[in-house]
Amino acid sequence: MDENIKQWISQEKNSRSKKIKKILSKMDIKIWDKKIDPDHQNFPFDVEEITGAGYICLECKNKNNFNGEFHIYRLYNKEDNEWDFESEMLVPVCIECYECGSNNIIIEYRPNWAFSVFKDGDDCYHLTLISNKILINFEDSEGYFKLFGQLGCNKDMRNNSSSIMNEMAEWELNDWDSINSDTNAVVVRITTKNGMEQNEEGIYDASGTYKFVEIGS
Ligand SMILES: [Zn+2]
Question: Which one, of 49, 56, 47, 48, lies nearest residue 29 by Cα?
Answer without folding.
Answer: 56
